[in-house]
Amino acid sequence: MSACPMSSVEAVLDRIAKSAGRSATCEYKYDGARVQVHLSLGVGSRNCSIRRIFSRNMEDITARFSTLLDVLEMRVKARDAGVRRSSSAESMIVEGEVVALDRITGTFRPFQKSLRSRRALLHDLFEEKPGYVEFVKYVDISLASGDKTRNEAALVRKYLAKTVATGCEGLMIKLLDGEESEYRAGRRSYSWMKLKLDYVLDKSTRCSGKPTVVNARDNGTFLADTLDLVPIGAFYGKGRRAGVFGSFLMATYNSTSGNFETIGKVGTGFSDASLMEVSARFRKMVLPVIEGVPEQYQSCAIRSCHPDVWLVPEEVWEIKATQLTESSSYTCGTDMDADSVNAAAPRKGLALRFPRFVRFRPDKKPLQATESEQVKELFQQQRL
Predict the structure, then answer these.
(1) Which part of the chain is the ATP-dependent DNA ligase family profile domain (predicted)?
(2) In this predicted model, what pLDDT tens digit does every residue of 62-77 receive, in sequence order?
(3) What is the pTM of this model?
(4) Going from the N-terminus, what domains does the chain have, and what CATH number goes with each?
């Protein structure tokens, strides 16, 4: 369960008075991680046959808190352990808060630390050895006192040029202080930002290294990020690509609907050898022929936009493009104007302009692909 925030003691008492039992208990509220523990005891034994821990979102986090299970199992009262237990229950679900405790002082410790604190601890724990273990190079910036935007912008541009000169892609910018700088595994947010050379330089200035203002309509520039997309369909090749799949229908993932939404076709960036390899692999992933569109796919009604074959969603590819455009041929982001005054008009999706294959992403599953919501954010940034 989750609690509703209340603004005053009076509001709390008013709610209790309206309840059927008109009574409540007041418990300490700890600042930690909410967990739900599932335990199942063997008859007359302290050993648990089932031991699992879940987060508030019902994600299995047993491996993360495995030592907690050992502690709980030791404290369960077993009937043959000489401790009286009134309940005959052999299984239980317990919800609680995991907090960090200082064993010396008995005080609670912050469950998360800022990046500045974590970085200092990292430098204290490890010793650098060039070529083996090295700390990332960095420069700190601050906008806390006064308007430093112009000075800090110049510092970031200079440092970006320096990183690229050493062979790096660009910069990772991470918030240093405050709650937003706390580490959140697997979550995408503006606490971490990446700035690549393609974002701020066009092809004509890449050799000189001079920053320019990016115009998303120029073919020589790229989106502010590559996209991790799922190939859900394939088109037969023609000409020199006859006999293999020549291009592929790509999709984003909509975590709200659970559907894959089309965003464009990609056919460049492949070598002849890689196309043959992909085609051989995909022939085993072709879905049975049906009338219309597979259930988990959201594609427009235009038949010419449908692929020659639909594919099982099993792979993730990294794709780059020059920009995003509105198109009635694709469905990514079609709900972005749902609340606007033009909601009654035919909705357009978002499509990639000049998409190009970059690499395969075997480290990612289809449900970890770029989400449609992220693409909509990129489109809004492009409009600025």
Answers:
(1) 112-254
(2) 888 888 888 887 777 5
(3) 0.51
(4) 9-108 (3.30.470), 116-205 (no CATH), 227-383 (2.40.50.140)
